């Protein structure tokens, strides 16, 4: 089960549509029996989270917080900055929705145990395949 919450006010977010997309993405990853929470937040809030958990004092696009211990049912939480997503969408020539979809997919892959910083490109290859399938 996916829960999507909107904790920012600057951008309209269709939580039902993103719940549906994230559910399909989890199934494509092979985690259709798992759950996760996705929160849309402001740049200010994601900067606070990034500083608190990664000691990086700047806003970022997406942060993933895996559940403690091995837990196939609850993968964890994802925070997405709607503001940073909108900026990146413009920079990358994407729609806001396409950028959000990519960030949700990226976050779900991290919650599923993938790490693009250490896996020699495995996560990136899978993410590109899933983008073609889901977007």
Compose a concise summary of this entry.
This protein is 50% helix and 19% strand. The chain has 135 residues and is α/β, with parallel strands linked by helices.
Question: What does this protein look like?
Answer:
This protein is α/β, with parallel strands linked by helices and 135 residues long. It has one domain (2-134): Collagenase (Catalytic Domain) (3-Layer(aba) Sandwich), CATH 3.40.390.30. The protein has helices spanning 15-29, 43-54, 82-92, 96-111, 122-134, and strands at residues 2-6, 35-41, 62-66, 74-81. Strands 1-2-4-3 form a 4-stranded mixed β-sheet. Strand 3 and strand 4 (74-81) form a beta hairpin. Helix 1 crosses helix 4, helix 3 (82-92) crosses helix 4 and helix 4 (96-111) crosses helix 5 (122-134). The longest helix is centred in the C-terminal third of the chain and has 16 residues, at 96-111. The model has no long low-confidence stretch (mean pLDDT 95).
Features:
Collagenase (Catalytic Domain), four-stranded mixed β-sheet, alpha/beta, 4 strands, 50% helix, 5 helices, 135 residues
* Count of separate structural domains: 1
End-to-end Cα distance, whole Å, is: 20 Å
Poorly predicted tracts of residues: none
Number of helices: 5
Count of β-strands? 4
CATH architecture identity: 3-Layer(aba) Sandwich
The CATH class designation is: Alpha Beta
- Side by side, the strands of the main sheet go 1-2-4-3
Q: What is the averaged pLDDT score?
A: 95
Please name the fourth-level CATH homologous superfamily: Metalloproteases ("zincins"), catalytic domain
Structural class: alpha/beta
Spell the H/E element sequence: EHEHEEHHH
Q: What is the CA-atom radius of gyration, in angstroms?
A: 14 Å
Work out the strand percent. 15-25%
The CATH topology annotation reads as: Collagenase (Catalytic Domain)
Shape descriptor reads globular
Main beta sheet: strand number and arrangement? 4 strands, mixed
User: Helicity, in percent?
Assistant: 40-55%
């Amino acid at each position: 089960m996916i829960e999507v919450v909107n904790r920012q006010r600057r951008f309209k977010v269709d939580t039902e549509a993103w719940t549906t997309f994230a559910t399909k993405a989890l199934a494509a990853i092979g985690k259709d029996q798992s759950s996760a929470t996705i929160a849309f937040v402001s740049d200010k809030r994601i900067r606070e989270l990034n500083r608190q958990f990664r000691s990086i004092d700047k806003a970022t696009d997406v942060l993933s917080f895996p559940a403690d211990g091995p837990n196939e049912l609850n993968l964890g939480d994802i925070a997405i900055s709607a503001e940073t997503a909108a900026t990146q969408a413009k920079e990358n020539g994407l729609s806001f929705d396409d950028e959000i979809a990519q960030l949700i997919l990226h976050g779900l892959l991290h919650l599923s145990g993938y790490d693009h910083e250490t896996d020699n490109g495995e996560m990136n290859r899978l993410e590109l395949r899933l983008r073609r399938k889901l977007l």
